[in-house]
Amino acid sequence: MFDRITPVVKQLLIANVVVFILSNLADQFFFSNFAFFNPILPNNEQLFNPNFKIWQVVTYMFMHGGVGHIFSNMFGLFIFGSTLETFMGSKKFLIYYLITGVGAALLNSMLNTYEMSQLITNSEPYWRQAVTPMVGASGAIFGILVAFGVLFPNVELMLLFFPFPIKAKYFVILYGLYELYAGSTGLQQGVAHFAHIGGLITGFVLLKFFGFDERQGNNFRRW
Question: Which ranges carry the Peptidase S54 rhomboid domain (predicted)?
Fold first, then answer.
């Protein structure tokens, strides 16, 4: 099975694991420089967050907050990534992966900025949001999920937490609705649900931009 992992997926898996190990050895350095901080401080004389650095929109997706976090994301990359890389080609797949991750960060940042604008500027909740970074490849993984659901909608998935097979298109729709519900109701505090939604939306738009659709997926032989 492992010898059939495509090149970019393999490199992403290795990069994420290496960064995870390094960030656990020097967590202060990695999290202060490479995790994603909300760039804007609304209603504040200091408009831009000094914790934010431009490269964080990419580097944050290679960092993870724990073993369970990186395992779940890399499992999704491992299961769905190679099929999509074979279908899209390595270059487009890498571009797709990175842009969906950036889109996830931007949507989550927009919502965080709005939430902060509703808070008292010098309050503890306001500054907690300013200094709490986001990490993880989840946004890019949700981009991969929506690509799989659009290109191979009728493939039946057998999931560990689901007692019966479910078609990819229904799985992605249900998962997206759950993320929207969880983000709107504050379920699972500490999880950036709207970053996941951002990955889904960005991925869907990119598929249209690249001209990928279900017809091409139906003519593609998956491994």
Answer: 53-207
